[in-house]
Amino acid sequence: MIGHGQLSVSGAVDLANQMKDDGLGHKAVEALASLGCGGAYPSNCERDLFRWLSTLFGFQLQPYVIPLKLQVDSYTPKEQAVRVLLPHEILHALSGHPFAFDSLIKGNMSDESRMCFWKHCRRLEGWRGHPALSSSPLDRLVPITLHNDGAQMYTDDEFCVWSVASLFGSVGLVQDPLLQKFPFVIIAERHMRSEAVRKQVNTTVAQLFAWSIQISMDGKAPSVGFFEEELTGYRAEIAGQQLAKGWRACYFTTKADLKARKIMHDFTRSYNSNLMCDSCLAACGQGCPDGMNYKNTSDHAAWRETMIDHRQYLAMPGPHSVWRCVPGWKLETLAFDLMHNIYLGTGRDLVASAIRTLVRQGVYTHVSDNMETVFDHIHKEVLRDTKAYGLSLPAKPPLNDASLGGADYAELSSKYKAIHVKVLIWWVALKCQRCADGSPGDQVLQVLATCCYSLQHAIETLDSSGLVMSWASASEAADALMLHAKSFSWLSSYFLRNVSFSFG
Ligand SMILES: [Zn+2]
Fold it and tell me: So which domain of life are we looking at (predicted)?
C-alpha cells in the first residue's frame, strides 16, 4: 500500500500499532509498529523504514551523486549534487534476491526461450550489429528497456523520470508494472525551465546511462567512477568483481510518449511540426502535397517510400540524438507502444467519435431525446457488457457530453486512463458490430464497425503473442491496423463533408 501511494509510512506505522494493540502479534507487524519509536516521531518513520529494509534484505544499493546545473531557487542555473541510481548496480543488487531476479529480470523464462528471443532479434533491423549480440553467451543476457516520462507526484508538480526495466520482466510472475520499473534519475520539471538546462541534463543522463550499460554488458564492476574518480565504500569493495552473478544486460529499446521522444532525441521532425514524423518524411498542415500527407492512408502514398533508417538518419544534417552514445542505440530501437499511441493517443478519438456516431446514426433514438439520458444509458450499457464478459473495469468516470470532447472535436477526456480506453475500444468494437449487423443498409455503421473491430483485432493479436511474435501474427496485426487506418480515414473525410465533429 505504501508503494502504491495509498498509505504514508507514518500512516502504516499507526495502523501497525493499532493491530499490535488488538493482539495481532505478527513479527512483521511488530517491526513496522516500532518505526519512528513506535510512531511517537512520525517524521522519522520513513527514514527508519529504509534503514530497516536495507538491513533486512542485505540490500547494497547506494545512491551515486552527480553534479547537474539546475534552476533550483532562481532562473540562473546553479550546480547541484543530484542523487541517482546506477542501472548496473540496480541489477547487481537485485541478483542477490532470487525470487525478484527470476521474475523481474529473467521473466521466469527458460534458457532456451531467452536464446530464441535473442536469435530472433539479431535478424531484425534495429538490433542487427548490436555489440552485445555478436560474441557473448546470449542465454545470460538481459534486454533493458529505457523509459522516460513525466510523472506528477504532487498536484501541479511534475517530475521527469528516467527508468530502466528488463523487457523479460513483462512476462514474469510479478505482474505489477510498478514493481517492474526502476527509476534511476528523477528531476523536477520546475528545475529545468530553460532549454539549455534541459539539454545539459538530458546529455549527462545519456552519458551516465551509456557508461553504466557498457559495464552491464562487460559484466564486471568498474574500478573507477563515471568521472574517473576513485571509488569508496561498497563500490570499492566490489571493484573488478563479477556483477549480477554473471548476468549481463544491454540496451534494447526506448519507450516514451511523443513529447518525451522529441525532447530526449532533439528531433527537428516531430508531432508538432509540419514534417511530423522522425522516421519518415510524412507531412501535415496546409499546402503539403497529397502524396506526403500523413492522412493519406493509401498503399501508394508517397511518404511510404521515405522511411529513414539509422544510417540515413546519421547522414542527414543534425542535430543528432545525444543517446547515440549508448552501445546498441539505433533510430529503429525507439518504440511506438500501444499505451502511448493507442490508449492515450488515437484510441481516445476513436472511442469518443464512435459513440457520437452511434448516437448520430439513430442507434439510441428509442432511449430519449435528452442527450445526458442517452449518455447515462450508454454508461450503464458499458458496465453491463464488461460485467457479462468478465472484464473488471476500475472505477470508470461517468460518460457525459463533456467527457466526449467539444462539439467540433470528439476526444475522451483525460479522466479516462489507459486501462479505461482499452476496455472502451473493446466495447465500441462489440457495440458497433451489433449495430452494423442490425442495419446492413447503413454505410457509416458498416465502416465504423470495421474501423473499431480491426483495431480491437490488432490489439488482441499483439496481446496474445509472447515476446517473440511469429511472422504470421505480425502480418495479421499489421493488416488489421492498415484496415483500421483506412476505415478511420474514410470516416474522417465522410464527416468532414457532412458534419464535422468526429474522427479528427
Ligand atoms: Zn513516419
Answer: Eukaryota
